[in-house]
Design a protein that fits this description.
This protein has 9 helices and 4 strands, in the order αβαβααβααβααα. It has helices at about 15-35, 60-70, 85-90, 95-100, 120-125, 130-150, 165-175, 185-190, 195-210; strands spanning about 50-55, 80, 110, 155-160. It has a 4-stranded parallel sheet, sandwiched between helices. The protein is globular, with a radius of gyration of 18 Å.
C-alpha cells in the first residue's frame, strides 16, 4: 500500500502545544541518553544508538536533527552528513563509509542521509547500476539486522514534504543570504524528478521495513 500519497500534510501543532511536547520529549531523550551512556543507572551503560534521517530536499532533516540533539551534551553524540561518496569511498562497498562511523557501545550517532541513498538518489540519478540498487535492498536489511543483533538501537525517520512547501522553502533560501548556501543547482533539477523519487521511496519502504 502506498504510504506517501496517504500522508496528511495539512496537520499542524500550535506553537504552544509544540513547545510543551518538545520540552517533555527532549527531557525524556536526555534521560534515556544518560542511561545508555552510563551517566545514570548502570555505570556500564547500554547499547549504541543510531538515528537515521532521510527525506526529500528541504524537508527539514537538518532542523529535525538540531531539535533531537539540542538538549544533549555535545560530548554525548556525533552527527554525520553524507553527500556524494569520495573516490576512496567508491573504491569500497557502498556500506563501508557508514560502517566505519557506527556508534559503539554507550555512544550515539545521527546520520543526515544514509545507506538508503543507494536505492534513492543513486537509483534515480543512475549513479548505481540496476543490478547494484536492486540487490541493495537485501544488503541493507541484512546490515541493519546485524546491527540490532549486536544490541544496537536503530531508529529511522523519513521526513516528507509537499511539492508546494518545497518550492516555498527553495525560494526562501534563495532570497536569504544566510541560507542561500543550502540551495544548489541539483536541488532545482531534482524537483523535476520528485515523482521518480516518490516511487523509489515507496519501494524502499516496502523492501526494507523489517
Amino acid at each position: 500500500m502506498p504510504r506517501l500519497s496517504h500522508l496528511d500534510l495539512t496537520k499542524r501543532l500550535s506553537r504552544e502545544d509544540y513547545a510543551v511536547r518538545l520540552a517533555t520529549a527532549q527531557r525524556r531523550l536526555t534521560q534515556l541518553r544518560l542511561h545508555l551512556g552510563g551517566q545514570m543507572g548502570d555505570p556500564q551503560g547500554g547499547p549504541g544508538l543510531l538515528v537515521v534521517f532521510e527525506g526529500p530536499d528541504a524537508a527539514g532533516k537538518g532542523g529535525a536533527i538540531k531539535v533531537v540533539v539540542d538538549n544533549l551534551d555535545p560530548r554525548h553524540y556525533q552527527v554525520y552528513n553524507f553527500s556524494a561518496p569520495t573516490k576512496e569511498e567508491k573504491d569500497h562497498h557502498f556500506l563501508w563509509r557508514f560502517w566505519k562511523v557506527l556508534p559503539g557501545f554507550r555512544h550515539m550517532a545521527v546520520y543526515d542521509r544514509s545507506w538508503y541513498g543507494r536505492v534513492l538518489v543513486e537509483r534515480v540519478e543512475g549513479f548505481a547500476t540496476e543490478d547494484e540498487w536492486k540487490r541493495a535492498y537485501k544488503e541493507i536489511v541484512e546490515f541493519e539486522n546485524s546491527l540490532v543483533t549486536e544490541s544496537a538501537i536503530l531508529v529511522k525517520f523519513w521526513i516528507h514534504i509537499s511539492d508546494d512547501e518545497q518550492i516555498e522553502r527553495f525560494q526562501a533560501r534563495a532570497s536569504d543570504p544566510m541560507k542561500h548556501w543550502k540551495l544548489t543547482p541539483e536541488d532545482w533539477r531534482n524537483r523535476d524528478k520528485n515523482r521518480l523519487y516518490d516511487a523509489a521511496a515507496e519501494e524502499m519502504f516496502k523492501r526494507t521495513d523489517h
